[in-house]
Amino acid sequence: MRIGSLRPGRLRVRLALLVATTALLVLAVLAALIFPQLERSLDRSRMQSLATAMDVTTTKTALTDGLTPEIANGRLSEAGYRNLRRIADAAQARVTLWWGSGDGMQFEADSLLGHVDELPTHEPAPPQVAFTAATTRSAVMTVGNFDGHPTALVARNLNPGGAPAVLLFSTSLGDVRAQVSSVERRFLAGGVLAFLAALAIGLLAAEPLARRLQRLRRSADAISHGSFGRPIADRSRDEIGDLARSLEDMRQRLEQLEQARSQFLANASHELRTPLTSIGGYVELLQEGETDELRRGEYLATVHEQVQRLTRLANDLLDLTKLEAGGAEIRRDRIELADLAAEAVRDAQPLAEARGSTLLLAAGDADAPALGDDLRVLQIVRGLIDNALRHTPSGTTVEVACRRTPWGASLAVSDDGPGIAPEFLPRIYDRFARGPGAAAQGSGLGLAIARELAGRMGGRLQVESSPSGTRFTLELGSSAEVTVRAPKRGRFATT
Amino acid sequence: MKATILVVDDEDPVQRLVRIPLEREGHRVLAAMSGEEALEIAASETLDLVLLDIMLPGIDGIEVCRQLRQRSATLPIIMLTARDDEVDKVLGLEIGADDYVTKPFSLAELRSRVRAMLRRARLASTEAASGVSDDEVHEAGGIRLDIARRTAESNGEPVQLTYVEFEILRTLMRSPGRVYSRRALLEAVWDSAEYREQRTVDVHIRHLREKLEADPAEPVAIQTVRGVGYRFQG
Fold first, then answer.
1. Out of A273, A306, A437, whose CB is closest to B82?
2. Predicted ipTM?
3. Measured between alpha carbons, how far is A195 from A210 in angstroms, rounded to an integer?
4. pLDDT tens track for A317-339
5. Helix-strand-coil split of chain B, %, nearest 5
């Protein structure tokens, strides 16, 4: 596996650091919660066992009995000392006895007995707990500093009512502390290990993420450099997968646009250069002069035809470009569709006769008022009639009908021809689109312009086609507020 | 010599136009208005040359060319195209056209191309039939060119070359080390460089390198001499 860049600021480094820092924080919080608690409870249990020992020695045994008269005397005999030593042995603690004098708050360390192995070399000052114990009957326990060490202390006044004689059991907490700090050290070492492990795991876990992101970046780079061919695949259901799917949608859209652009360029080149070829070729033939009068007339007619074709193409291209740029002025006057339909049908009768087809004005509503631009509506209707006559076989009946609609008026041009091929139907509005087998006659831009015009007049152009006929319907609104809109098109859409 | 030429174009004026000079030269001209029709005619007739428009309704010219090429590796095909940026693709092995004419073309250009194409095709077939150059085999730099059999090998592997690619390589390999200008190469293949764009030589050379060189970006056998042309280094 190739390990990606480890530069700081990289996503995977940041993720790994985040994971490791989280691990460290968790450990720190745990340590803060556990260790003082652990220390306290160990201290307390040590103190408790000391208190139990105090209880046992002072109340349930006769060990201290012998001491009492001596305490009352203010002196401790040899036997008293031995007694104390036995108490210390039994309690597993260092035992100190302080004699009080006077008001009982001035202790003198008269006697000191240590636990077997820790006889101090000097006499420490009595701890605060001894003074506290002197004023009460019961045992007092605490954890404090005694003789410069952390110590568990239990003190009891053996001579309540008289001059205080405080018996102090003390046991060093050094071993407890050492234990705790040893655990702490191990915990710390574990923490460092956990941090490093989290860092490594984080880096490894973030690696696939980083790699997928990098792959997406490379794909996006490729797209921005103009190559749309390779699909962006990331089938995961996570956010990166979502991003990949969005990018893939974008890529497909760009690819389609690029194909449409390329197709448009190819079509436009073809449409422009084919008539030029004919014109140039026939002029060349005429210049060679090896033609009779009849041929010359034929050649000139073809040249004229092709010049007209180029002119139409130039006009349509400019018209469409202007419309798409929102440039041409389209009026929204009150117009009468029925009148315009009648005019268009009248104008197209010669073509219908030439094609051997029938063109009728169907009985619809006598008046079908709408808002629009009369010249542009005529342009649309003429184009639709022209299409219906030219793209159907001889003998077809073409009908033009106007109707009032709830929102305005509609004009339908229908034929009983063989219909538009289903696979071609979605592309009929494409610029230069040509149905299978259709000969090149128009500019290939008529329907694109018609739809654009309908939209600009606040209406729409719709088509239905089946093997038994085709119907184009132009719908227009009757008031400025009504807009019969086709679905909004993207800016780069080619239809 | 009379030839049977199939003209495939869906534009009636272009069909009529192309037919005139070809018939004047005594050729038999067949017309197809669509790709389907072209394939039908090609199946039933013995053709000497096909003039094929790319933009056709239904099966387009590129697909027609590919299918014709599959049926016959030697049938000369000249594409008619409205886009000069398609030249690269059209001349490649994938499509396999031998030559192309960009619209708008003059009739003089068309005549010149048709003549050159027919002459080359005839020459190639007489060479193959008579076995005149039976022992003409060029071998250098791991590339072997057998003129009589019209086969090429690169390091023992057979390589498929188009007609023009073969002729360019043959010219270069005849005199290893000699520098040929683009014009000289066009003349060697077509007898005349008239109406021909010199950059088509670059297209053919690139295709040759892709087929023959281990690393087409760092060519060893076919070298570019900057500002002059190309040479073969055996």
1. A273
2. 0.78
3. 21
4. 899 888 888 888 888 889 999 99
5. 45, 20, 35
